[in-house]
Design a protein that fits this description.
By secondary structure, this protein is an alpha+beta fold. It has two domains: 145 residues, Fructose-1,6-Bisphosphatase, Chain A, domain 1 (2-Layer Sandwich), CATH 3.30.540; 99 residues, D-Maltodextrin-Binding Protein, domain 2 (3-Layer(aba) Sandwich). The strands form five sheets. The chain has a seven-stranded mixed β-sheet with strand order 3-4-5-6-7-8-9, sandwiched between helices. A three-stranded antiparallel β-sheet has the order 12-16-14. 42% of the residues are buried.
Length: 258
């Protein structure tokens, strides 16, 4: 399954970059968030590939969900797809957008890939093994195993300027951490998984397709994502009072630290 994820992400990444270089026409969804031809083309390709290989596993994908087409009950095993995570960065011609594909089983993100086609960074994870993959012209040319590092002083935080909240600022002040900013959400998980950072606090709304693939890679590398009350972040959340299906609460992703 991971091999199929990797192949689909590479082809989707090529499609995304074709649009990136050709020119970007921006539309807006019902919630006013931006969407482009790259989002739609990437999602169509990934969904076609997954449904051909695994017709019995439901798919929850961002653009289908925006159109009200997400499955009513995906069950205990389903795919989560964000065909272009970071559309705002894509439109602004920044490099941190990614293609994300994940498998969730019993609320846990077990398998995931994150591909940043503009920068060529590619990460994958399955239970017990996470890897950084070397890419050349959207092709795999090498891979190496990665794992979280032991916490150090000061800890390194990954947190974006565009999603900073007072709670995030307070968290950073409390642990007196060094800080890395302006890294796409999925890549934040991967930097921790690869031992380049220690903590990613997110106090604010995200959706499960934003986080599942990166979270799967982090867990495969020995890290964990928990809610502020210390419980593991779970997936497949629906019928949440006052909140949309598949919306996440605040969370803190960590490497090998207490």
């Amino acid at each position: 399954m991971l091999t199929i994820f990797e192949r689909l992400a590479l082809v989707a990444g090529r499609l995304v970059m074709d649009v990136f270089h050709a020119g970007i026409l921006v539309e807006h969804k019902r919630d006013a968030s931006p969407v482009t031809a790259a989002d739609r083309a990437s999602e169509r390709l990934i969904l076609a590939g997954l449904r051909a290989e695994y017709p019995d596993i439901p798919c929850v994908a961002e653009e289908e969900a925006a159109e009200g087409l997400a499955p009513r009950d995906p069950g205990q095993t389903f795919f989560l797809i964000d065909p272009l995570d970071g559309t705002k960065e894509f439109v602004s011609r920044n490099s941190d957008f990614t293609v994300n594909i994940a498998l969730v089983r019993h609320g846990v993100p077990e398998i995931g890939v994150v591909y940043a086609p503009c920068s060529g960074r590619f990460f994958s994870g399955r239970p017990g093994r996470a890897e950084a993959i070397e890419i050349s012209d959207h092709r795999i040319v090498g891979r190496r195993r990665i794992s979280v590092r032991e916490g150090r002083t000061p800890l390194t935080i990954v947190a974006s300027r565009s999603h900073r909240t007072p709670e995030t600022d307070a968290f950073i002040r409390d642990i007196e951490a060094a800080e890395i900013v302006s890294v796409g959400s999925s890549l934040k998980f991967c930097l921790i998984a690869g031992g380049e950072a220690d903590v990613y606090p997110r106090f604010g709304r995200t959706m499960e397709w934003d986080t599942a693939a990166g979270d799967a890679i982090l867990r495969a590398a020995g890290g964990m994502t928990r809610t502020p009350d210390g419980m593991p972040l779970v997936y497949g959340k629906r019928s949440q009072p006052g909140e949309s299906d598949y919306a996440n609460p605040s969370f803190i992703a960590r490497g090998s630290i207490s």
